[in-house]
Design brief:
With about 300 residues, the chain is α+β, with helices and mostly antiparallel strands. The protein has helices at about 10-15, 15-30, 35-65, 65-75, 75-85, 90-110, 140-155, 175-185, and strands at about 110-120, 125-130, 160-165, 170-175, 195-200, 210-215, 220-225, 230-235, 250, 255, 260-265, 280, 280-285, 290-295. It is globular. Keywords: 2Fe-2S, Iron, Iron-sulfur, Metal-binding. GO terms for molecular function: 2 iron, 2 sulfur cluster binding; iron ion binding; monooxygenase activity; oxidoreductase activity, acting on paired donors, with incorporation or reduction of molecular oxygen.
Length: about 300
């Protein structure tokens, strides 16, 4: 029996189903308030009906086949439906821990890790360790990887706070939004608030030591594989202000083909004199390599 009855194409289709439903509801508004209300009522009735059916299925599974129930709970699509109806068998702490475990390979590729300090009142408290706590890529890591994973696994979470170690002082808690605002204002243009994951199945074919460029949603990225680990960066050399097209990977160093600057790709793209490539989260989502890119300001969901 196959682990998954459907492939990545189906997963991608259903991942955007909510957006399509909302678009259809908005279009009903053109028919007047009464038509819009009828459409919303129809959606509520359908959601309620399927929710009742899901609840019965989950109860039967928990009583007769807990192993199968566990498999469904760890499937992204099924888990999202269980969360909508309040039927997920795992508590919020377990779901947040599992989400952090999924992003740890990305954090580890930059020499860091994340610890869950606690969950209280809808707030998750995290602490970054290793190079993540001081590296300029921490903002990217937090906003596009950790936050995405935690909020997808636990939509009831209302806030994520990061504890940072202060020299000769007690740890202080700062909101994630404040941390990101400080990093964004440090000589760099502000990044868009939203982000979107883009499946790139071709990345699975990248061989160890190989470097390739990809055009995704109007952005060019460079992906290299160190051993079994693929790493993604924005296609821009901060030293010569040019493209990285034609770059070669030697061990963990990615060399710009124009200015010959070497960047350590397993330590967040660190280069000489504080120069840094801009890393992008690259994670397996439903078994498909996916890259997170910031949405342009004003772009739709």
């Amino acid at each position: 029996m196959a682990d998954r009855p459907e492939g990545p194409d189906s997963d991608t289709q259903w991942r955007t189903a909510g957006d399509r439903i909302q678009t259809l509801l908005d279009s009903c508004a053109a028919g007047g308030a009464a038509a819009h209300e009828r459409a919303q009522q129809l959606v509520r009735e359908v959601v309620g009906l399927y929710g009742a059916g899901l609840e019965r299925i989950v109860l039967y599974l928990l009583a007769g086949d807990p192993a199968l129930a566990e498999r469904l709970a760890t499937d992204d699509l099924v888990a999202s439906l269980l969360l909508v109806h309040g039927l997920h068998p795992h508590d919020v702490h377990r779901r947040v821990c599992d989400a952090l475990d999924r992003v740890r390979p990305y954090l580890g590729s930059h020499g860091g890790d994340v610890d869950l300090l606690g969950i209280a009142g809808g707030t998750v408290r995290l602490a970054f360790t290793g190079s993540c706590k001081s590296c300029p890529s921490s903002a990217v890591t937090l906003e596009l990887a950790v936050q995405d994973a935690v909020r997808a696994a636990a939509p009831e979470i209302s806030a994520i706070e990061v504890v940072t170690a202060q020299p000769a002082a007690e740890p202080s808690v700062i909101p994630a939004e404040s941390l990101l605002a400080q990093v964004r204002s440090n000589g760099s243009p502000p990044r868009a608030h939203g982000s979107r994951w883009h499946p790139v199945p071709e990345l699975a074919e990248l061989a160890p030591g190989e470097v390739a460029g990809f055009r995704i949603s109007g952005a060019t990225i460079v992906v290299c594989r160190v051993g079994d680990l693929p790493l993604a960066y924005v296609d821009h050399c901060p030293v010569c202000d040019d493209t990285l097209a034609g770059a070669h990977l030697r061990d963990t160093l990615l060399g710009c083909p124009r200015c010959r600057t070497q960047f350590d790709v397993v330590h967040a793209g660190a280069g000489p004199d504080g120069a840094h490539l801009e890393p992008l989260p690259l994670l397996l989502r439903d078994g498909v390599p996916s890259v997170a890119l910031a949405e342009p300001l004003g772009a739709g969901a």
